[in-house]
Specification:
The protein is mainly β. Helices cover 1% and strands 47% of the residues. The strands form 7 sheets. The chain has a 4-stranded antiparallel beta sheet, with no helix packed on it. It is globular. The mean pLDDT is 93.
């Protein structure tokens, strides 16, 4: 596989997201400007200028008309995908860490970090069909206490938007009622991660989800019951996870902290995207190439390509060759 190298960011990548059709790839980085790329040839289509801090996360609506981004400048912004114009800005009192549209794109869940006196919080906003009707009010705000000083790194919608699943620095996965804000369940301590959960991704059908953690493992969970299904172990902290929509494969990306990278050469740094068999939990291969930890991974919805974003500021877009689809364990 020859990767396509996409250089559009001057700072480390933080997040990658394909649209539902799989023809566009959105990238976020610490350089304030999210980009959009053609997903087949890696050509850059445009940028979304307006943030004033690192952009941690983004999501795109089902029809690829709206983009939402969350940034360290204490805002989440809605954008018109086609024109690149800002449609609306949600202002908060602390940095925005994670954003996701609900099924149907009528709601968005936004998480904010602890900052000064603020505790970490989960906000639910209504997304108007017509930008002119958009308001900033929250339908629901969950102030997370007593773990308020702990960051929530990801919050996503559960099945039918009835729940919100959150995970973060305290390594516990929580499921909340999205109407009332009530805590419904937490994962069993003995099954769970032992260090910060860095990433969380849902399966295409929403029945299970995968979490990656600095404890050098990724875990697969049942969405409804929050029972642990599988655990994938690796040799370095996991910063990003992705699940193939086509085959029973999961991909883990990571590497040691950027602060320690210069102490070893890049081979020792383990900067590769590792593929595991989802069911057997065995490593089946790896894709090397980044000169720094992998911070973001995403699978194309057709399962025929994937991209990784690194601390080195590059996005590497890989179209699988035929051998990949015939891997026998």
């Amino acid at each position: 596989m020859r990767p396509i190298l996409m250089k559009g960011h001057e700072r480390p990548l933080t997040f990658l997201k394909y649209n539902r059709d799989g023809d566009l790839l959105f990238s976020c980085a610490k350089d304030h400007t999210p980009n959009v790329w053609f997903a087949d040839n890696g050509e850059r289509l445009g940028t979304y200028r307006g943030h004033n801090g690192a952009v941690w996360c983004c999501d795109v609506s089902r029809d690829s008309s709206r983009l939402i981004t969350g940034s360290a400048d204490q805002t989440a912004k809605l954008w018109d995908v086609q024109s690149g114009h800002q449609v609306f800005t949600f202002n908060f009192d602390s940095p925005t860490r994670s954003v996701e549209f609900s099924v149907g794109d009528r709601l968005a869940v936004i998480t904010t970090d602890p900052f000064m006196e603020q505790t970490s919080a989960i906000h639910v906003k209504r997304i108007a069909a017509d930008p002119a009707d958009q308001t900033a009010e929250s339908i629901l705000t969950l102030k997370i206490t007593p773990q308020g000083r702990m960051k929530i790194n990801r919050a996503v919608w559960g099945p039918l938007n009835r729940t919100i699943i959150s995970a973060g620095e305290d390594a516990i996965i929580r499921i909340w009622d999205s109407e009332t804000g009530k805590l419904l369940q937490e994962n069993q301590k003995e099954d769970g991660h032992t260090k910060t959960i860095t990433s969380l991704v849902k399966s295409p059908d929403g029945s299970h989800f995968l979490t990656g953690s600095l404890d050098k493992s990724a875990k697969l969970w049942d969405t409804r019951t929050l029972t642990l299904i599988k655990t994938y172990r690796t040799e370095s902290p996991v910063n990003a996870v992705a699940m193939s929509p086509l085959l029973n494969h999961v991909v883990l990306g990571g590497g040691q902290d950027a602060i320690n990278v210069t102490t070893t050469d890049h081979r020792a740094g383990k900067f590769e995207a590792k593929f595991y068999d989802k069911i057997l939990q065995e490593e089946i291969g790896g894709v090397k190439g980044h000169f720094g930890p992998i911070n973001a991974l995403a699978f194309n919805p057709d399962g025929k390509s994937f991209s990784s974003g690194g601390e080195d500021g590059y996005i590497r877009l890989h179209h699988f060759d035929h051998d990949y689809f015939n891997i026998k364990i």
